[in-house]
Design a protein that fits this description.
6 helices; alpha+beta; 2 domains; Butyryl-CoA Dehydrogenase, subunit A, domain 2; 272 residues; Butyryl-CoA Dehydrogenase, subunit A, domain 3; single chain; 3-stranded antiparallel beta sheet
């Protein structure tokens, strides 16, 4: 079995494996703890086992567009040993909390890259003079409008993501209402997908605001954009997130109503 893995240098991983028939769909998946080396439990004084002692073989590193600092490889697992986590057939349910946290981590990474690019473009506008040195870009209305649109996008994505993080905190602390739990289910994939999609466009706009200087590799716009692109498909892409939410909405009107009620609450807070 081959794997596309970005945890190539880890000592242990968790993996979903099919323990039921293909007809069972996701209900036939179980969660396993898979160590790189065997035995998993050993004395500190024991010699370090071979990295292929659990029959996990690395074929090659992937030549990626971005995230070069993170090694991603093709692996083969040949009768590798794993240890069941939780009940059989409950793999997706057991891994879902980790995936949801990762989705929010992905959203914050997108926001962070966007904020970095916006900060560089804003600083540049304070020192770049035009019209024979008579006017700084920061004082040119058309340029300010361009930066303001990126700034507005950044703030909107930040509010969306950290609003969902707030819901996650309430759910984890056991203080969330049933409606808030439904909102978390709906908004987690939305925040991840929407932030990844819009942040990259905002970063390109910030780069364009610096003209040719923004296109130079030493200003790190290129690396930020290349690294941020991975957030569009890591875990799941935009279409998958749409299908997840469509499935959730179809599961009951309460879920859709919990999302729509957010707008009415915000209108009450802001007033007429």
């Amino acid at each position: 079995m081959k794997w596309f893995s970005s945890a190539t240098d880890s000592e242990v991983s968790v993996a979903l494996a099919r323990t039921g028939s293909h007809g069972d769909g996701s209900k036939g998946l179980s969660l396993f703890l898979v160590p790189l080396r065997l035995p998993l439990i050993r004395n500190p004084s024991d010699p370090t086992p071979s990295p292929i002692s659990n029959n996990i073989f690395i074929h090659r590193l992937k030549n990626k567009i971005g995230t070069h600092i993170l090694p991603t490889a093709e692996l083969t697992l040949e009768s590798a040993e794993g240890y069941l986590i939780g009940a059989l057939g409950k793999g997706v349910k057991n891994i879902s909390p980790v995936l949801n946290i990762t989705r929010l981590w992905s959203a914050t990474a997108s926001i962070g890259n966007l904020r970095k690019c916006l900060a560089m473009a804003t600083s540049y506008a304070k020192v770049r003079a035009i019209q024979s040195g008579k006017l700084f870009l920061k004082d040119a209305p058309i340029h300010v409008e361009q930066l303001a649109s990126v700034n507005l996008l950044y703030r909107a994505l930040t509010h969306l993501t950290f609003g969902v993080i707030g819901l996650l905190g309430k759910v984890e602390c056991g203080t969330a209402s049933a409606e808030e739990e439904l909102r978390l289910r709906m908004l987690t994939p939305v925040a991840k997908a929407y932030t990844a999609e819009k942040a990259c466009a905002g970063m390109e706009e910030a780069m364009a605001a610096m003209g040719g200087a923004g296109y130079m590799e030493e200003n790190a716009f290129g690396r930020s954009i290349r690294d941020a692109l991975v957030e569009k498909w890591v875990i799941d892409d935009l279409n998958v997130n749409i299908l997840v939410d469509a499935n959730l909405i179809g599961s009951g009107k309460e879920l859709l109503w919990s999302l729509l009620s957010i707008s009415s609450e915000q209108l009450k807070i802001q007033g007429p």
